[in-house]
Specification:
It is a single chain. The chain has 191 residues and is an alpha/beta fold. The chain is globular. The termini are far apart.
């Protein structure tokens, strides 16, 4: 049985037994928060438990490294939708210790892409249109600095209202311990 068949078999039982009932909610976040976190598998259940959030409480955006690296990319668009269309009133960027993005070496990563069948010509074509794949796939060496950069990009975005607190945090992926890197409430009070 392949993964799709396994998922669909489980899903049929899930729906038939009405196991979805405890998860019923609407599209508006009860705690009026949007959380940007890493896609790391260790955080799937740990992060919500560590932050005391449950189904329906928040909008969660998962991305490699919890990085917001483009002011008009899909992550930033999702933040803006959460705020302007779905009622979120604050943003949390939550990176984590031992993040895989801190170990990304662009040259090795590109080599892996080539090993997986991406032709050399593709990289040349991308470079010809101004896309520097080396820069695009680059990770970070310090998670706190990376979180701060994402917080700064969000906070300074022209479409983010000035009253929205943007907080940066780092979570330990084994214990769930949270550390505040950038206090969004403190930053608002200083204005």
């Amino acid at each position: 049985m392949n993964t799709l068949e396994e998922i669909m078999n489980h899903n049929r039982e899930f729906v038939e037994k009405k196991e979805y009932a405890p998860y019923k909610t609407d599209k508006f976040p009860d705690k009026k928060m949007v959380v940007i976190s890493c896609m790391d598998t260790r955080l799937v259940e740990l992060l919500p438990k560590a932050m005391n959030i449950t189904n329906g409480d928040v909008k969660i955006i998962k991305t490699a490294g919890a990085i917001v690296n483009h002011p008009f990319g899909s992550v930033m668009r999702s933040v803006l939708v959460a705020i302007h269309a779905l009622g979120a009133e604050e943003v949390f960027v939550v990176g984590h210790e031992d993040c895989g993005m801190s170990a990304i070496e662009p040259e090795a990563f590109i080599s892996k892409m080539k090993d997986n069948g991406v032709p050399e010509e593709t990289f040349q074509t991308l470079e010809n249109v101004g896309i520097q794949v080396n820069n695009w796939v680059k990770g970070f060496s310090n998670v706190q600095e990376s979180v701060n950069e994402s917080v700064k990009l969000i906070k300074n975005h022209p479409l983010i209202p000035a009253h929205i607190p943007v907080t940066g945090m780092v979570i330990h992926p084994e214990t769930g311990k949270l550390s505040v890197v950038n206090d969004g409430y403190e930053a608002l009070a200083e204005k």
